[in-house]
Design a protein that fits this description.
single chain; 186 residues; alpha+beta; Chalcone isomerase; seven-stranded antiparallel β-sheet; two-stranded antiparallel ribbon; 36% strand
């Protein structure tokens, strides 16, 4: 009788959707499907600016990675931002462009200028992102699919652009050092 109970309990545990973590009050899925492939939560943390909590960033990969090279070697991948406060599109775009410029050489930025301009255009169309909105940046099929609250907002072609984008959080001058560590599972 006890064995049947334990087996039933074990089955129930596996049947329930697994939540890997709660970060900053945001519940994050342990796994998700991107581009037809199951990804696992690699890490997550809170992006702060001065004393304000801005968003929860999470990184999903096909398999765990502990460094930038490992993250970039795997595809598809997702960077997700769960907003903790309202932001204008200009503030969001400005932060992303600053992060791109801080973490990529000028020659690489020149090579992805058209894609960066496309990202700016897509993001500015948001007008504003609000607390509890979810922005996703999925790298799949050689493009970065930008999403807002589950709706596709555009695709930016090119692996070079996606690698430049990932460096915002995981590059040599990340937007926040402790966030980089958290995203890499540290």
């Amino acid at each position: 009788m006890m064995r049947k109970f334990l087996l039933a309990l074990l089955a129930l545990c596996f049947a329930a959707p697994a939540l890997a973590a709660e970060v900053g009050g945001v519940k994050l899925d342990d796994r998700m499907n991107v581009g037809g492939q199951e990804l696992v939560l690699n890490g997550a943390g809170i992006r702060t600016k001065v004393v304000f909590k801005v968003y929860v960033a999470s990184l999903y990969l096909p398999a765990k990675a502990t460094d930038l090279a490992g993250v970039l070697a795997k595809g598809p991948r997702r960077i997700q931002m769960n907003l903790l406060r309202n932001l204008s599109a200009d503030d969001l775009v400005g932060a992303l462009v600053d992060g791109l410029n801080d973490n990529n050489p000028a020659a690489e930025m020149a090579a992805v200028k058209a894609q960066t301009d496309q990202l700016v255009s897509i993001m500015k169309a948001f007008k504003e992102v609000k607390e509890k909105d979810v922005v996703t940046l999925d790298f799949v099929d050689d493009g970065t699919k930008v999403g807002l609250n589950g709706a596709d907002k555009g695709v930016i072609k090119g692996e070079a652009f996606n690698k430049a984008l990932v460096r915002i959080w995981l590059g040599d001058k990340p937007v926040q050092a402790d966030l980089k560590k958290s995203l890499l599972g540290g």
